[in-house]
Protein: YfiR family protein
Organism: Sphingomonas colocasiae
Amino acid sequence: MLRQGWVLRALLFLMMVLSSALPASVHATPIGFLQTPVPEGAAGQTVAVTRVVSGILSYARWPTEPAPLRLCVAGTPRFAGGLSTLPARSPRRMEVLRITGTSAASEGCKALYLGRLEADERRRLIASARGQAVVTIDEDDPPCRAGAMFCLHVAANSVAFELNLDAVSRSTVRIDPKVLLLSRRGERT
């Protein structure tokens, strides 16, 4: 088990180093992972997305620990209803803020959750977070082409995400390689 963790960390590090060596015009292929199973009931997908987002944020390390961690929600999210409950379950003090058409950095966002948006607005918000200490999570870009760090895939029975190594490597936020283990935890629940 310990050996697998070391190999996983080494693999992620190697991928991040290789992706950071790519020119900015080359889009690195995202890596996908099976995630949390969806609980039964009408709100099951929202519960599963909340778990995945909480897990992602728990593996993020900002250059300066944000107090509180401001999670900004932009666009029209379909599965973000449970995000307002994150502060009660997270070890970090958090606040959830809805933003419209502004930059993530100007609002003091440390995490940016994107719902349905026009393509130009999505690109502008992600670009405003690039190079900043902001984790970007997109629920409406399954191929992860707009440049968010994490892109969710929400299905009837599971929630998966793509990890965009290029976006992660260019961020000032460090993502612990253990984020890759979220899929194993999800399979056991």
